[in-house]
């Protein structure tokens, strides 16, 4: 067990837990020493540890808390939005809690779901955020499903594009930070007290439909919450919401989460402009360090020291040097259609396409080296989660009326 302090969670948690979107270090890296299989076959059960059917549909990524896995879903038949609990070892569905009923949005994008934000946990409680009843609503429950509080963060009634919502809540110390950005007067970034649900700070964001999840890190000794979109990249003080710096760049709508190295911040998107942009992470220069026209819209990028990987909407994988944006290599993986973000495990990148292929390639700037292609169902939107030398994969098998979602653990047996 470890106890993080200063900038992080204020509870004892397992070092191998995956408590929120993008994991323990907020960078989608598996912990040092972790591993995962390179190849598996769902149909034949090869390297499949367990496979559990999920009621309903969602694009959220699972989190892992102690002996349990938590995942959100939405069931259209009874118009419910739910939080599910699975056994970490066996995959057995343990609990199925209805959080909202009868308040699903009237319209969303066909590539979105009514359960796209990933939950977050401090090791004792789970925080689930939903777009419901024309608002963004966060619910806190214990890991046994007892509700602590429920809080309306903001109205969410987009007028120009009714595409739904996707930003995950993130934990910073005793604050839960939630983005609720849309083309209305209540567009904001807010921090809720994890004990009470009350708003500790709230900053206005432009009246602009944006889908990015904020992320917390420390650059140059300065803790910050980063978010991109609305034609800018912003850094905020996590404790007060004070804007630390801002660079006017990028584009209006961003879906992916900002990434960084020890000095730089990088983002990609979007709509109406497309590209990848890099700025300095200390706010010392109000301009772009480098940019290109590669569009990684739904999916986030992935950094290692001095380099950043991306898989574009076109299905082409890239590696750039973060210092100057030099393209180290590019290689086509598939024909296009991607929402899942790449995950780093033991020097390998795992990334899934929307048609269910999961590609594994070396995290090397020297050359592209594809290690495996694993067909994993017919529809893949969530991001692989590395845990216990396994990967947790949320996928759907079948189409139309025969479509069924599963949570699958793959690992070397």
UniProtKB/TrEMBL annotation:
Annotated organism of origin: Rhodopirellula halodulae
Lineage: Bacteria, Pseudomonadati, Planctomycetota, Planctomycetia, Pirellulales
SMART domains associated with the record: PQQ
A UniProt-annotated Pfam family: PQQ_2
Pyrrolo-quinoline quinone repeat domain mapped to chain residues: 40-155, 168-330
Domain of life assignment: Bacteria
Protein name: PQQ-binding-like beta-propeller repeat protein
């Amino acid at each position: 067990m470890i106890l993080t302090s200063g900038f992080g969670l204020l509870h004892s948690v397992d070092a191998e837990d995956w408590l929120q979107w993008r994991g323990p270090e907020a960078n989608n890296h598996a912990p040092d020493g972790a591993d995962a299989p390179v190849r598996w076959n769902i149909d034949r059960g090869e390297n499949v540890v367990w496979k559990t059917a999920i009621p309903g549909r969602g694009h959220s990524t699972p989190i892992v808390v102690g002996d349990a896995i938590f995942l959100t879903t939405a069931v259209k038949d009874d118009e419910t939005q739910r939080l599910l609990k699975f056994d970490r070892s066996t995959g057995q569905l343990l609990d199925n809690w209805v959080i909202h009923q009868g308040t699903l949005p009237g319209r969303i994008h066909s590539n979105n779901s009514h359960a796209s934000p990933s939950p977050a946990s401090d090791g004792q409680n789970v925080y689930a955020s939903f777009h419901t009843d024309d608002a963004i609503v966060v619910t806190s429950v214990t890991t046994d499903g007892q509700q602590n509080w429920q809080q309306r963060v903001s109205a969410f009634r987009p007028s120009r594009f009714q595409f739904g919502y996707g930003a995950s809540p993130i934990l910073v110390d005793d604050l839960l930070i939630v983005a609720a950005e849309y083309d209305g007067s209540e567009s904001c970034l807010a921090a809720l007290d994890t004990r009470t649900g009350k708003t500790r700070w709230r900053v206005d964001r432009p009246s602009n439909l944006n889908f990015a999840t904020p992320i917390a890190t420390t650059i140059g000794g300065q803790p910050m919450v980063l978010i991109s979109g609305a034609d800018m990249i912003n850094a905020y003080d996590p404790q007060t919401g004070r804007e630390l710096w801002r660079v006017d760049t990028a584009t209006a709508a961003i879906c992916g989460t900002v990434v960084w190295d020890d000095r730089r911040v990088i983002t990609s998107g979007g709509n109406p402009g497309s590209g990848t942009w890099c700025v300095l992470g200390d706010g010392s220069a109000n301009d772009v360090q480098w940019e290109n026209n590669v569009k990684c819209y739904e999916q986030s990028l992935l950094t290692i020291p001095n380099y950043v990987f991306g898989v574009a909407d076109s299905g082409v994988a890239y590696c750039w040097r973060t210092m100057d944006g030099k393209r180290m290599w590019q290689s086509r993986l598939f024909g296009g259609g991607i929402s899942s973000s790449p995950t780093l495990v033991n020097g390998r990148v795992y990334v899934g396409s929307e048609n269910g292929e999961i590609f594994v390639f070396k995290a090397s700037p020297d050359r592209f080296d594809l290690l495996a292609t694993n067909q994993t169902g017919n529809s893949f939107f969530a991001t692989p989660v590395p845990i216990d030398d396994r990967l947790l994969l949320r996928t759907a098998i079948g189409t139309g009326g025969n479509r069924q979602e599963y949570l699958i653990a793959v690992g070397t047996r």
